Amino acid sequence: MDYYRAKRILSQVKIIDIKTGKKIILLNKEVAEENDIYIGQRVGIKIGKEEHAVIVDLTEELVRKGEVGIFKDIAEEYGLKGGEIVEVFPLPYPISLEAIRKKINGYSLSKEEIESIISDLMRNRLSEAEIAAFIVSSQIRGLGDEEVIHLINAMVNSGEVVEFKEKPILDKHSIGGVAGNRTTMLIVPIVAALNLKIPKTSSRAITSPAGTADTMEVLAEVEFSAEELKEIVEKVNGAIVWGGGVNIAPADDYMIRIRRPLRLDPQGILMASILAKKKAVSASHVIVDIPIGSSAKIEDFSQGKQLGKYFQRIGEMIGMKIGVVITDGSSPIGNGVGPSLECRDILRILRGDKNLCYPLMEKSALLAGKLLELSGKATRNQGYEMAMHVIKTGKALKKMKEIIEIQGGDPNVKEDDLPLGSYTFELKAPRKGRIKHISNKAISKVARDAGAPKDKGAGIEILKNKGDVVKRGDIILRIYSESESKLGYAIKALEEFKPVVMDKILLEEML
Question: How far apart (Å, rounded) are the C-alpha atoms in residues 462 and 341?
Answer without folding.
Answer: 10
